[in-house]
Specification:
InterPro entries: Amidohydrolase, Bact_exopeptidase_dim_dom, Peptidase_M20, Peptidase_M20_dimer
Shape: elongated
CATH topology of the largest domain: Aminopeptidase
Keywords: Coiled coil
Number of strands: 16
CATH class of the largest domain: Alpha Beta
Largest sheet: 8 strands, mixed
Organism: Niallia oryzisoli
CATH superfamily of the largest domain: Zn peptidases
Number of helices: 10
Oligomer: single chain
Protein name: Amidohydrolase
Length: about 375
């Protein structure tokens, strides 16, 4: 990677870090990235409102390759002392999406200056953290007949600058589930006069180990209790309303669907048995299974080898979720992981900051993929 380009995008990364914006609020971030591409390249820019992409045109009859970066931040405070620290309380780039976008911008500079044999699409996506960013953008795949799409995520616990790969499922499917129950109120001294949903909610929780047991599933299935909120803070009242918040997660989407169905059916049955007059279900932060295509991962292996980048084969998929799976349902592609270092702070923690050293690794890997036949 050209030194001047690396310096430019490292500075860009620090600017993005100082101006974090939450999912679907990334107005400044999107505009800054567009301005950077416009100022430093001749690429065509297509503004799609919440997101945008840039295009390098190699010509008719060429393959169409896409590379994606996300650019939203997290609702967290910046507590470590950084020269490029977040300027906004309660918002910080603690997942490294600033680095992903800077890497894609660096790749755009290199392709614009040196050319490519394929048509290259540089996709800058919002709202990965809430799971709806890729949903907004996925129509781009069909519209431009994208043959293959690639992305990377930085990850701690992996050797610095290594590219870590896995075929098939790379990250779990997941969603936030809220079970809401409404009975009827009563005086605390006469609970029999009302309908308290607490006991039904307790029975749902007690059933979770059975639903997620390895004996009943072919892959890992998780159901994490996030919050139990029942009744009011009033000792004279028997609870009449309650919410059970769960994160449900599975290696395979079909088993996530089965878990959801089991929980819904149990809740409905318990509601009927206990005289609970209302039970509803709502869902948030829905992520598909991120599944890598074998041929795309093989291209990653070959590109890394040619670039002298160490490849590590991952023994298992990551439990964390990624909305990139929407793209690999629509076309071939792969999500890979570049190591921050084996003892580096984990993403989504206060101590974390994206490692600028891996920008060049990402750009060189993408250049190798852009040159693949």
């Amino acid at each position: 990677m050209e030194r001047k380009n690396l310096e430019l995008v490292t500075k860009l990364r620090h600017e993005l870090h100082m101006h974090p914006e939450l999912s679907n609020e990334e107005v400044w971030t999107k505009q800054r990235l567009m301005d950077f591409i416009r100022e430093h390249t001749k690429l065509e820019i297509v503004d799609k409102g919440n997101w945008f992409y840039a295009i390098y045109h190699a010509g008719e009859g060429k393959r169409n390759l896409a590379f994606r970066a996300d650019f939203d931040a997290l609702p967290m405070d910046e507590v470590i002392d950084l020269p490029h620290a977040s300027r906004y309380p309660g918002k910080a780039h603690k997942c490294g999406h600033d680095g992903h976008s800077a890497s894609l911008a660096g790749f755009a500079l290199e392709i614009d200056q040196k050319g490519a044999d394929h048509n290259i699409y540089f996709l800058f996506q919002p709202a990965e953290e809430t799971g709806d960013g890729a949903i907004q953008c996925v129509g781009f795949i069909k519209e431009h007949h994208i043959d293959e799409i690639f992305a990377y995520h930085n990850w701690s616990g992996m050797a610095l600058k290594t590219v870590n790969v896995i075929e098939g499922t790379a990250q779990f499917a997941s969603k936030g589930m809220t079970i809401h129950m409404e009975g009827s109120p009563a005086h605390a001294s006469q609970p029999e006069d009302g309908v308290n949903p607490a006991f039904a909610i307790a029975k749902i929780i007690s059933k979770i180990p059975e639903f997620t047991s390895s004996e009943n599933n072919k892959g890992l299935v998780l159901c994490t209790v996030v919050q139990v909120a029942v009744g009011e803070r009033a000792f004279g009242m028997s609870a009449s309303k309650g919410d059970l918040l769960l994160t449900i997660r599975a290696l395979y989407e079909e088993e996530l669907d089965k878990l959801q169905k089991n929980l819904e059916e149990l809740a409905k049955t318990l509601a009927e048995e206990n005289g609970i007059k209302k039970v509803t279900f709502t869902y948030n932060d829905e992520f598909p299974e991120t599944k890598n295509h074998k041929e795309s991962i093989e291209k990653v292996r070959q590109a890394a080898k040619e670039k002298g980048i160490e490849i590590v084969e991952m023994p298992a998929a990551w439990r964390a979720s990624e909305d990139f799976g929407h793209y690999t349902k629509a076309t071939k592609g792969a999500m890979v992981y570049i190591g921050n270092g084996e003892n580096y702070p984990q993403i989504h923690t206060y101590e974390y900051d994206f490692k600028d050293e891996i920008i060049e690794t990402a750009v060189e890997l993408f250049k190798g993929l852009a040159a693949a036949k």
